[in-house]
Amino acid sequence: MSLTQAMLSPLLATVVGVLLYSWLFKTAPVTSYVTYLVIDERGVEYVHSPGSDRRVSRYGWHQIEEVFANLASRGEEPGLTIKTNLPHLGGQCIFLPMFSENDCLAAVHAVRQGLHEQRA
Questions:
Q1: Alpha carbon of 52 to those of 35, 40, 47, 55, 56: distances in Å?
Q2: What's the topology of domain 37-119?
Q3: Quick check: 67 and 80 in contact, CB under 8 A?
Q4: I want to staple 79 with a disulfide (CB 3.0 to 4.6 A). Which of 9, 24, 25, 97 is the partner?
Q5: Domain residues of the chain, as ranges?
Q6: Can you tell me whether residue 1 is helix, strand or coil?
């Protein structure tokens, strides 16, 4: 092996490594976290679809009668069921899917606490 070949081999490996790293960095999936449920002093806000076609449902404390947890461990689709007193819905229940059973339980607790504070 000549001196030129010995010098080019590490350089070639470095260039290939940098190109491979650049390609992996560009093609790696981007993780973004989106808030899809907000429980605050105004009530409950649920984001059905984030982004440019953002669809949001808002329910004020005065519009919520009760909230129930749907749990995967009970064979249900995980989420919140909110019973409203909205006249145009006729007191129907509204289902808001959630991604985690723990999040669902925490959300039910927070909504029930908010309802209790609003009614006190």
A1: 15, 24, 12, 9, 12
A2: PH-domain like (2.30.29)
A3: yes
A4: 97
A5: 1-30, 37-119
A6: coil
